[in-house]
Amino acid sequence: MDLNTLLKPFEERYQRIKELSDDDRKRLHLMLGDVEESVGIEHLVDSLAEKTSMAGDGVLRCYVGFEPSGKAHIGWKVLSLQLKRMLKADANVLIFLADWHAWVNDKFGGNMEDIQQTAVYMEETFRALLDYPEEGDGPGQLRFYWASQ
Questions:
Q1: Which residues in 21-37 are b (16+ Cβ under 10 Å) and which e?
Q2: CB neighbours of residue 142 within 10 Å
Q3: Higher pLDDT, 39 or 87
C-alpha cells in the first residue's frame, strides 16, 4: 500500500499533513501507522511542518514509563516494535524508569535495592529489544531516566 493511501484517514482530520515533505510524511507514518490510538497528532504534524519542537531544537521526543516491578514479558516486545519505529522516524525516545513510584507502591516489598536492580535489568532488556540504538539527546537516539535521579 502506498504512503498516500496509508495517511488518507489522518489527512481527513488533519489537513496540514498535505503540506509535509515526503520525508516527513514517511516519519509521520512510522510514528502513527501501526497504533490504535494517538494523542496530539495535530501538534506532531505542526512540529513536522514547522521543524520545531517543545525544546526549541527541532528534535521530536516521545516517552514511555514503567515501574520496575518484574521480569520481561511479551508486552515489552510489542511496545519495543513501536519504539523502534519512533527511533527510525528520528524521534528521541525516553524510557522513564519510575523507581520511586515502584517504592511508593510497595513493589518488591518496598526494597529500593531490588527495585533499582530491576530497573537496570529493564535498561539492558530494552537496549537489546531495540537493537542497541545510539544513546543520547539527539534524533533517533534512546535515553533512560530514573525518577530518583
A1: eeebbbbbbbbbbeeee
A2: 20
A3: 87
Sign of CA dihedral 22, 23, 25, 26: positive
What is the identity of the amino acid at 66? Answer: F
Where does the pLDDT of residue 1 fall: very low under 50, low under 70, confident under 90, or very high at 90 and above? Answer: low
Residues 6+ positions from 1 with CB-CB distance below 8 Å: none
Collapsed DSSP state (helix, strand, coil) of residue 148: coil
The domain spans of the chain are 1-52, 59-149
The CATH classification number of 59-149 equals 3.40.50.620
The helix or strand, by DSSP H or E, that contains position 113, with its residue range, turns out to be: helix 112-129
The pLDDT of residue 32: 87
pLDDT 10s digits, 12-28: 888 899 999 999 999 99
| Per-residue burial over 77-97, b = 16 or more CB atoms within 10 Å of its CB, e = otherwise | eeebebbbbbbebbbbbbbbb
